[in-house]
Automatic annotation (TrEMBL):
<feature type="transmembrane region" description="Helical">
    <location>
        <begin position="209"/>
        <end position="235"/>
    </location>
</feature>
<feature type="transmembrane region" description="Helical">
    <location>
        <begin position="179"/>
        <end position="202"/>
    </location>
</feature>
<feature type="compositionally biased region" description="Low complexity">
    <location>
        <begin position="1"/>
        <end position="17"/>
    </location>
</feature>
<keyword id="KW-0472">Membrane</keyword>
<protein>
    <submittedName>
        <fullName>ABC transporter permease</fullName>
    </submittedName>
</protein>
<keyword id="KW-0812">Transmembrane</keyword>
<feature type="transmembrane region" description="Helical">
    <location>
        <begin position="63"/>
        <end position="81"/>
    </location>
</feature>
<feature type="transmembrane region" description="Helical">
    <location>
        <begin position="134"/>
        <end position="159"/>
    </location>
</feature>
<keyword id="KW-1133">Transmembrane helix</keyword>
<feature type="transmembrane region" description="Helical">
    <location>
        <begin position="93"/>
        <end position="113"/>
    </location>
</feature>
<feature type="region of interest" description="Disordered">
    <location>
        <begin position="1"/>
        <end position="24"/>
    </location>
</feature>
<feature type="transmembrane region" description="Helical">
    <location>
        <begin position="255"/>
        <end position="275"/>
    </location>
</feature>
Amino acid sequence: MTTTTTSATASVAPTSPNAESTLPATAKVPSRIAGPRPTTGVPFTRLVHVELRKMLDTRAGRWLLIGIAAIIATALTIMFFNEGGQHSFEEYLQATTMPMAIILPVVGILAVTSEWSQRTGLVTFGLEPRRMRVAWAKLLSALTVGVAAFALALALAGIAHQAAITFRGITADWGIDGLVLLGAGGYVLLGIAQGVGFGMLFKNTPAAIVVYFILPTAWSILGSMVSWLESAAAWLDMQHTMQPLFSGSLTGEQWAQLGTSVSLWVVLPLALGIWRLTRAEVK
């Protein structure tokens, strides 16, 4: 193996007037690689695009999306033939958003844990050493998927309801409260943000998925069965605090309860997960 050198010379002065330098009088240095030098880092939009690819353009992500589509198609088909198809747009919307809210967070978990389970972290953090930017890109890409999924859920619910009106002759019922829409969209977005937080916190796919599904469910069961936990569950059980959204009315106390539960199950895992992501050893 050879090294290209230039004929430029560098003078080496002795350390003292009476001491002889043990270094050669001249030394050859490597030539500078030609071409412009980079002046900016990786654009944030490119990071978001890459994280979107990680979430959707993989075998696991693809099969999860296929599973969601199959569940939604089955639910809408059952509703179309059950009770003559006489269901409101709101009921069709619930049938399309529930599978997304339950399964999409797993896609967010996989987008984070793949850095360690598939050993892509060396590439990711080598190309972008500022891990905080990577963490925000993962979260933003997950929320983008959530927004697109909710928009698709609205479209599918509208198509199914209109099909029932046209082919089953049902009475149209397009009325839906704004808070119900907010609750349906928030259910999808908060779930996927929570999944990203658990993925960052545990950095292990099985552990993150198990804890994501088991811990909130166990807390909800305990809050409904243990009497002295009922008052705490009213503030800390997100499934309980989101119910008033779907009924279309929230009091000031219920908004405070919703904010408290979201802080515990979404904001706190995200904050701890980002903190751990920026300090974890990449192997």
